[in-house]
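Lab meeting minutes (informal)
Scribe: AK
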Amino acid sequence: MSEATTLKILYIFPNRDQYEGECCRTSDGVLLRKGSGRHTSVSGIIYTGEWDNDKMNGRGTLTHPSGAFYSGPFRDNMYHGKGTYRFPDGTEYTGTFNNNRFEGEGEFTDSQGLMWRGMFHNKAALGLKLKVNV
């Protein structure tokens, strides 16, 4: 694919989602999101960050109407790398993600504000230890 210069656009999709940001035109004339941009869905989900090949790729923030959000790296529209996910109830996971799942070393702060550290694997977290500040 031979890429031309970066364009800045405001595009409203047929379903009324909206993208404002950078894109490029492929050699066959198709516009692809590439660079920095903000995508707002009609359901209220907002992604602000980097795009490549028309997908969330690179650093960004995804916020949900519920108050949940993720901040960190994306790969092919999925959480991937070291990031933070905050749940609507205020609990929070900071650590490694692999294809939208908790994977590897991380810290989870529960609803009482206690921080647990350990190895996470999807929804399992065997051997968590309470992190104590002295």
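Next up, CB showed the second protein from the same session:
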Amino acid sequence: MRLKPGALLRFYSLCGILVQVAATKNKARGGGATSKSSQGQFPLTQNVTVVEGGTANLTCRVDQNDNTSLQWSNPAQQTLYFDDKKALRDNRIELVRASWHELSISVSDVSLSDEGQYTCSLFTMPVKTSKAFLTVLGVPEKPQITGFTSPVMEGERMQLTCKTSGSKPAADIRWFKNDKEVKDVKYLKEEDANRKTFTVSSTLDFLADRSDDGAVVSCRVDHESLNSTPQIAMQVLEIHYTPLVKIISSNSWPEEGQSIILTCESKGKPVPEPVLWTKDGGELPDPERMVVNGRVLSISFLNKTDNGTYRCEAKNPIGRNSTEYVLIVHDPNALAGQTGPDHALIGGIVAVVVFVTLCSIILLGRYLARHKGTYLTNEAKGAEDAPDADTAIINAEGSQVNAEEKKEYFI
């Protein structure tokens, strides 16, 4: 009769355990003091965490041992190693160290199915055990960004989704735009078909703006299995928008006889077509002096007829835009006259001063004359028979002739 491979392995494992139990009993009969020392010891193990595909090292130690055997078993209670004897035919499992005080083994190319509770047994009477849990981390797949169609028109809504599968535990996803993190995002976690790993996705939702053209949007996946080296997916944005137009003048104070250069700066995507220059709503009136070279308008030998509103218009397949520049040509002679002394202004000031002076003199004369008459009137008040000021003056001098002269000073 031929045994199946699985049954054969279990048979070998059972035989090894029976042989070891028998050997332990013989040792117990021959060395009582030492056996009691080993019976007081428990095997020592530690939990292990390993990344999927890596190597897990399982170590079992005993401080004091009287040659009692040690054994490692997997979560299915299959014997992996009994002392230095391999019991399970799995090429991934190897012996690292075997002594009366330690039994260490390694499991390479670890898979998620290897996760679970491993047992180290010390074959005393009774058998003493210690558990070590092997945790296997699922590595997330490289993320991918979907939902981007190039190009995008300015003002359109964009929804970019970043997705990664196979992480255990669930990975974390973060969004960045030109190295600046974007916080307002949606996050979704789903369990994979194997019921051990997770698929996570995150959606970035925003309105396309011309400032986003050429921006680098990145999706970063962080996970403990990546050893602080996140996985990153990137997408360069391409935004189409209408031209933005601006006119720059080479002369801030143009004068007659000088020249001026007007540059029309237009920025858009796609690149705008050659610009169109107009003056006061029509064509440029003097092509000989007004020369257009690409986006530049040059006007030589300026004069007053060049005054007006100049318009620059740019367009691309998305739309068109324009801006205006008002040109005022100044008279250099008028400007020079303004810089010299203003004689009219000076004459006006002098006239005002003279007028004020004359008014002051007149008012002062009237004031002095009034007070002089009052003084003479008071001087004549000594005549008690004078009914009024005129009579007092006449009486004070005693003469009708002089009375008329004195009345001239009374106001």
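CB comment: Residues 1-37, 375-383, 396-411 have pLDDT under 50 and may be disordered.
No objections, moving on.
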